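Objective 1b of the project was to move from sequence-level analysis to a structural picture of ligand recognition. The entry below was assembled by the postdoctoral researcher (A.K.) and checked by the PI before modelling. It contains the amino acid sequence of the target and the SMILES of the bound compound, zinc ion.
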Amino acid sequence: MDVEVTSQALAAMRLAARSAHPREACGMLLGEGGRIIEARTTANVHPAPETHFEIDPQALVDAHRAARRGGLQVIGYFHSHPTGDPVPSITDRAMAAGDGRVWAIIAGEQVRLWKDGGSDADAGFTALSYVVTER
Ligand SMILES: [Zn+2]
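Corresponding predicted holo structure:
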């Protein structure tokens, strides 16, 4: 099944990647069901942000709290590759939790979606196709 992504979320990810360059941008993918409605940029708090990312933990706590109160769910995460391709790096594979969340990776204007494990935790990342919706 295709994931749906709003054009606003895609635009927000591309803007975040451009703004953070040459560092990695990062943030959370918020939505409901199979729909990514919002890409919320957070600080990249990793000490080596040119080659790594770590989403601001307080932003994650806040998003999960809002989700429990009926807000948008945390469907996954996004980050950019300032140099290279929008495919999971060795570092990304090492960080993967196998929790079934969606990872979006941005390189230039390209945005690709990946699923982190899921039913088979050893599966690693699998490419997801998506359709763009207006809202
Ligand atoms: Zn990466």
